[in-house]
Description:
It is a single chain. By secondary structure, this protein is of the alpha/beta class. The strands form 6 sheets. Strands 9, 10, 11, 14, 15, 16, 17 and 18 form an 8-stranded mixed beta sheet that branches. A 6-stranded parallel beta sheet has the order 3-2-6-7-1-8, sandwiched between helices. A hairpin with a 3-residue loop joins strand 23 and strand 24 (712-717). 44% of the residues are buried. It binds a DNA duplex through helix 4, helix 9, helix 25 and helix 26.
Amino acid sequence: MSAISLDTLNPxxxxxxxxxxxxxxILAGAGSGKTRVLTTRLAWLIATGQVSPGGVLAVTFTxxxxxxxxxxxxxxxxxxxxxxxxxxxxxxxxxxxxxxHRDAGLPQLFQILDMADQLALLKRMYKAANIDxxxxxxxxxxxxxxxxxxxxxxxxxxxxxxxxxxxxVEFYQLYETTCQREGVVDFAELLLRSFELLAxxxxxxGHYRARFRHLLVDEFQDTNLLQYRWLQQLAGPDSAxxxxxxxxxxxxxxxxxxxxxxxxxxxxxxPVRLIKLEQNYRSQGNILDAANALIANNATRLGKNLWTSxxxxxxxxxFAAPTDVDEARFIVEAVQSLVDQGLSAQEIALLYRSNxxxxxxxxxxxxxxxxxxxxxxxxxxxxAEVKHALAYLRxxxxxxxxxxxxxxxxxxxxxxxxxxxxxxxxHARGAGVSLWAAACAGRIAGRAGASLGQxxxxxxRLQTETAALPLPEMxxxxxxxxxxxxxxxxxxxGQERLENLEExxxxxDGFLRETGGVLAVMDAEGGETLLExxxxxxxxxxxxxxxxxxxxxxxxxxxxxxxAAKGLExxxxxxxxxxxxxxxxxxxxxxAGGPEEERRLMYxxxxxxxxxxxxxxxxxxxxxxxxxxxxxxxxxxxxxxELIEWLSASVHARVARxxxxxxxxxxxxxxxxxxxxxxxxVRHAKFGxxxxxxAEGLGDDxxxxxxxxxxxxxxxALEYAKLQSAG
DNA sequence: GTATGGAGCATGTTA
DNA sequence: TGCTCCATAC
Length: 727
């Protein structure tokens, strides 16, 4: 094996990479070379012969991160990556469950439900069981079920103090029965099922524990309880766990991530070697100073301070615009001038807290003729037409898949409507069989029965016709013969959908070439391999929903939420919409730990920038079709003023007093002679300083909505609340 | 069985 | 403002 060069690593990085086989927690600050350390560690372990490629397990959260790790590893070492246990939590669980499906109580070709599939199944279940959708919204139940699973809780283990929860648990149980009967598995189930498999089956657990001498975990701060316990199952007394994370970048608590896992790890896996990577190779001094100052406002931290050997660089620049449109205009002009100076648009990112904010920016960019790319939104395998096509493929693999059948039984329209399906479902329920079986039985009378019979015939015909075809041809054939293609051809807006269906054939082809159609591989030494192209492709579609937009040719400006920007870096970053209620988001302020998570989010945003950082806000913006007036974000008052160059009137001093500058003067209709205006700063005896953001009513009934700096947004009756003008 | 309109409603997001 | 869902009309 070739030697791995460690010369370019700093002492801490090298220490981490060359750690002996022991448990370790690497606190890796933003831009400290985290991915590099992780992959070099992996390569070093293998190259020095301390472990065989098959003896390593490395786990990440996203496919992107997993791919990145594999690519870098392959560049350092000559090895076949296919059989390596490197992947996402869900990808590895999928493999584990395919290999040991019998022990796990699943069919080998089980289908994976994405979030939309899961919700559809719940709604179907509601209908079948006559459950009141009003009192128990399907979305809430979905959240409840996934939350329970992420805590490792099966229905019987969920604590039920109140009737409401008791009912939810019943539905959870019913959902489980349904999934089991249909042989489908949701995302959380992949984790829970393989956790239980290992916990229950001592021989199997022993096998994997003996095998994986080294376990490497990326983004450890984002793990939930179940993922943590899953790792505990796989890590034996002789294995070393190398966990890399940054508590300051934990921004997914809202979906179950527990930073506490880092403390838990130090306790459960003791002794744990702790290494901090604090040298930052990304950002210039002023940017880091700003980020450090901001995050210092959080009380619950493990403690870490980033530094750089680079110079201070440029100051942060800030701009307070009167309106969201002005803010967008300012950004477009600033971007234009940077591009004129020779900076590639590709190197500039526009970040925002919520997706709704992208619209104004897009509008301004479009008018300026500036190419841009928006991340987020519909992904390839989530598009309706692609899901339809996948449903046909699922039926070919397993006609008993009720979800798939319901999705396409009437696409294209075959005269099988709601009523016919109700009858079919009653038959199926009565006989305790799948919809497919009920349809095959042919006991449905009339036209609907005939249509169903034809549908059954179609699927059976497709099965025989495609049985011997390679995957891409199979997809092609299905598209043509199912009527899907013709359906979208006759649709006047179907052009793009048709192209996506064509793209699906390409995706199948690509999948086959990249993986050889392998569903699961036992080990890197070429042990057990399960060849099942169709099932493999379907799993791939669920586990990798694909990109949201195909990459475009010319360099484009990048637009995304701050969440989506995590892990990325740009020369220049604009953080937009820095207003109280927006960033930090108002909904987060009442949540436990919410404000601190918002601050970490801001920290992530700041540390994305290498050289230039712009902060902007609008004092009034359209949100949900209404004009809102906001005070500047508290984050401005948490950044050292000397680091910021204001391109508009500074907001700093005013933030301290809780008032914005430059709010357009608009009379509040109802206040009459009171002298109060929307946008005006006021003082309230109890709530302190705030800004009037809305008003309604006349005379004695007049009420105003005030956004208080400390107390949030409140409606106050003018008659009782003694508001003093403070601006 | 399908098309249309109005009401209701809004964080963040990966697998 | 723009979407998703349900009710009603064809």
